[in-house]
Amino acid sequence: MEQYTEETLAQAKKIFNYLYIRESPEKADAIIGFGHFDLKIPRQCANLYLQGYASKIFFTGGVGAGSGDFKHPEAMEFLHLVQKEFPQIPKGDIIIETKSTNTGENLRFTEKLLNHINPKFSFVKGIQKVLKVSNAYRQRRAYLTCQKIYPNVTFINCPPPTSFEEEYDLYQFKKQDLVRHLIGEMERMISYPALDFIVPVVIPDEVMDSYNFIRKIAEKYS
Length: 222
Prior knowledge:
CATH topology of the largest domain: Rossmann fold
Shape: globular
CATH class of the largest domain: Alpha Beta
Radius of gyration: 17 Å
Largest sheet: 5 strands, parallel
Order of helices and strands: HEHEHEHEHEHHH
Number of strands: 5
Strand order of the largest sheet: 3-2-1-4-5
Number of domains: 2
CATH superfamily of the largest domain: HUPs
Distance between the termini: 12 Å
CATH architecture of the largest domain: 3-Layer(aba) Sandwich
Structural class: alpha/beta
């Protein structure tokens, strides 16, 4: 693992704080947890459910770049954790989608599953407001993807409480480089609007400056 200077980590933290958007939860039709190796995601979804913000939880995610050392699809791992740690949540209130490998598929495959279960309760028809729970640095892009694919649904950003320092330690524990992940996420934020994957976004100049700084540092290690 690369050893970054304090300045590099400070610039990476600025990017992290931009990508990690949080809003106050509101009463909603459902909670959606996007798959990742970060088990704070299903715990956050369960806590929001138990606080009465919604009566359904959707877990979405197969096996992909963010699965880490999971032995099963991300959504299945999430379900297993909730059943173990939050047994008071009825299994029937949790819907899992286990085939998707990216954010667009997370949404579209979940919609297909919901239509199969109950056509009157889906992103296209019936659902008006959703609490969205993603890995911290993916929260903004996933939100912009939700806005692009289902513009008539209100998505509220409710990722797990965390910090750059906590995530950095988690990624080191998983033998992954958070700084490089942040560079990749910024590249997606920059390129995806032209590909029609997310709604257009104006990235603040100071965030772009931080991105350019850490990108040049990372190139030295390539």
